[in-house]
Amino acid sequence: MKDKSQNRGYMAPWESAFDRVLTSLEEFIQRQTTGAVLLMLCAVAAFVIANGPWSDDYHHMLDMRFAFGWEGFALPMSVHHWINVS
What we know:
Structural class: alpha+beta
């Protein structure tokens, strides 16, 4: 497999370092297990926050109103509602 840098000519040292990091990140994101792992980590974090000392703040954040739209038309709903809609 050809290296990307061979097609572009000269690359500054920071560009090749960025390419290495970006390639690793792209491979991580494209794996099928990545989405499942991130979803599980977020679920565990939400569980800990909702049942820990920050539970009042967590529930207050879910009840906050968030409007999406423009002047004359807006969809004001709570964050909890926006999460359930998507």
